[in-house]
Write a structure and sequence with these properties.
The chain is mainly alpha-helical. A two-stranded antiparallel ribbon has the order 1-2. The protein has 26 helices and two strands. The protein starts with 8 loop residues before the first strand and ends in an 8-residue tail after the last helix. It is about 55% helix and about 0% strand. Strand 1 and strand 2 form a beta hairpin.
Length: about 600
């Protein structure tokens, strides 16, 4: 897709700064010396020999060179942390990851020692395996243990390098080197279950001017993004890391003997989504948009790439690379190189896929550690509700059997090409969709326009509808997303996501209503009062009440449309009804009569 674009520039402007992607032909890699001592001295210095993990990448010498520079900057170069402290981090992460190869490699090259402070290795293990839960409290604990910002950044970078190497070992599966002994079977370190999803955003480390604004790293970032993203700016206090990281980024992304740039960004986006990394998913979505992939398509890749419009071979590419994501909930299946080869991917492309996965995990780890905040408003903010293993199937919301879909036959006919039949689906559901949107956006004209958008989106994407839910439920979810997006364009909107610890509404007027309120108010007055009261409800409760009480969806259908669990949906409906009751109470409560 990007072949022949050498020297071309595409610019897309967002809030404030442009992103610029420059496509240029990379120079051919230098010929590698047959003597590894001359070709990779830093790797020899780090490990005492050239590990098979790097020999397995011999078809891509430019990548080995870039990985060597990164390891040299982070692991070998003296810094705030000692070589033994860095070795302790590498060993701890390899054990927590469960990588037999890296356990043997790090155990051989970095002698085990008692940690200077267990808080350091505990932090690194949490960062490697539970990145989304890292918060300012974890950074505060390191600072209380006398680690300054520079030392903490070194620990984050060392952890990210360990994660990257474990990813490469998972994907490339190198044979154990003759210099290494099997690490044996060890009980992996226990990782406490995370308690709370972090509520406050970063950054966790102070901004540093270690990298000059005119440094090569900043220049390259401006050239390819139009600005210096927060993720890299927060690493300015470690200029050697930033320079090596940017050189690795160039080597991985900006040459195309194997995968093209769009495919690599697909992998970065899919793995960032699997790792629940809002920052990186936002950044790579914006880059893909500049490369010609609409943001709506990026959203589908984030949610479930099987429902996206990418090619079948690219779906399989994401199937396999997502197995290399770093969260514990990643697929238990192993990365299958053979499956990619049967789909026409070359050996070089397969190697690149693994390396790009390693880059994604590296960047996700660094971001989780430094707490970089998104450079653009996120289209998707990950939270606790996303902690479901990816399976390519919709998340079940209950154990009940979904009833037969009365629209199934019509949908099937439209999918077979009988497009005129879609008019009947519009006729059946236009009132429900319009009602949901009118209640959500509170404006009749906007609701009419949005209703047309909903049916247009449904028509354009009906080929992807697979019947895992009723067509009406699927259509309602499109309506909710369309209405919510319209509200976001008006003003910042609260998330409709399921969040632990919803604010605790407590009704103050739970009183009996008059048995016959029509005696007090006319029917038209009642309708106006109820409509106004519904519109005053907070958005997430308003939507829940509209779906259940106005549109008469079942609990299961409403939960599926909002991507909530059934208990969460019921809780929102109950709170919405109580809020509504309290709002209307002054009009309908029984008034005590007193003698004149």
């Amino acid at each position: 897709m990007l072949q022949g674009l050498a020297g071309s520039v595409r610019i897309s402007r967002y809030t404030g700064s442009p992103i610029v992607i420059v496509h240029e032909c990379m120079s051919q890699p230098a010929t590698i010396s047959k003597d590894p001592l001359r070709s990779y001295p830093q790797l020899i210095a780090a490990f005492g020999f050239l590990p098979n993990l790097f020999r397995a990448q011999s078809a891509l010498p430019r990548l080995i060179e870039a990985e060597q520079q990164l390891i040299e900057a982070v692991v070998i170069r003296p810094g705030r942390l000692s070589r033994t402290e860095k070795g302790a981090i590498l060993n701890r992460v390899a054990k927590g990851w469960g990588s037999d190869y890296c356990r043997a490699l790090f155990g051989h090259s970095f002698a085990a020692m008692r940690d200077r402070n267990p808080v350091l290795s505990d932090f690194s293990l949490k960062l490697a395996k539970q990145g989304p839960w890292v918060s300012g409290r974890d950074i505060g604990a390191l600072k209380e243990a006398a680690f300054d910002d520079t030392a903490i950044l070194e620990a984050i970078a060392t952890t990210a390098v360990a994660v990257m190497l474990c990813t490469l070992a998972d994907g490339l599966r190198p044979s154990l080197d003759t210099d290494l002994r099997s690490a044996g079977v060890d009980e992996p370190p226990k990782i406490p279950e995370p308690l709370d999803w972090p509520e406050s955003a970063g950054p966790y480390l102070g901004s540093s001017s270690g990298s000059a604004p005119d440094s090569r790293a900043y220049s390259v970032l401006r050239e390819h993004f139009g600005f210096v993203p927060n993720l890299y700016r927060l690493q300015g206090g470690f200029p050697e890391l930033l320079d090596a990281e940017v050189r690795w980024l160039e080597s991985v992304l900006l040459s195309e003997p194997g995968l093209n740039r769009v495919q690599k960004e697909y992998v970065l986006l899919a793995i960032s989504a699997a790792n629940l990394n809002t920052y990186c998913a936002t950044l790579h979505s914006q880059v893909l948009d500049i490369l010609g992939i609409p943001l709506e398509e990026c959203d589908r890749i984030v949610e479930d790439h099987h429902h996206s419009g990418i090619s079948g071979t690219d779906r399989i590419l994401l199937d396999e690379t997502r197995k290399l994501a770093s969260l514990p909930s990643r697929s238990s299946q192993r990365f299958e190189t053979e499956r990619l080869r049967t789909q026409g991917f070359t050996e070089v492309q397969t190697f690149e896929a693994v390396v790009v996965a390693g880059l994604a995990n590296f960047l996700n780890t660094v971001q989780a550690g430094v707490g970089a905040t998104p450079d653009f408003p996120p289209r998707r903010v990950f939270g606790p509700k996303d902690l479901y293993p990816f399976s390519g199937k919709s998340r079940p919301t209950s154990d009940v059997i979904v009833p037969d879909d009365p629209d199934a036959a019509l949908v099937a006919r439209v999918q077979r090409g009988e497009i005129n039949v879609f008019e009947e689906l519009v006729r059946r559901h236009s009132r429900r969709v319009f009602g949901a949107l009118a209640g959500l956006v509170g404006n009749i004209d906007d609701a009419r326009d949005a209703t047309q958008d909903v049916f247009l989106k449904a028509f354009e994407n009906i080929g992807r509808f697979q019947g895992r839910s009723k067509f009406s439920t699927w259509l309602t979810s499109i309506a909710i997303n369309t209405g919510t997006e319209l509200l976001r364009q008006r003003k910042p909107s609260e998330s409709l996501a399921e969040i632990e610890g919803d604010e605790g509404f407590r009704p103050r007027q739970v009183q009996s209503w008059e048995d016959n309120p029509e005696q007090m108010c006319s029917a038209s007055q009642i309708n106006d009062l109820v409509r106004e009261a519904v519109l005053r409800l907070p958005e997430k409760y308003r939507v829940a009440v509209l779906l259940r009480d106005i549109n008469q969806l079942s609990t299961e259908e409403a939960a599926a449309a909002l991507e909530l669990s059934i208990p969460a949906l019921k809780a929102r409906v109950l709170r919405g009804r109580l809020m509504l009751r309290e709002s209307l109470a002054p009009h309908f409560i029984r008034q005590d009569k007193t003698d004149a």
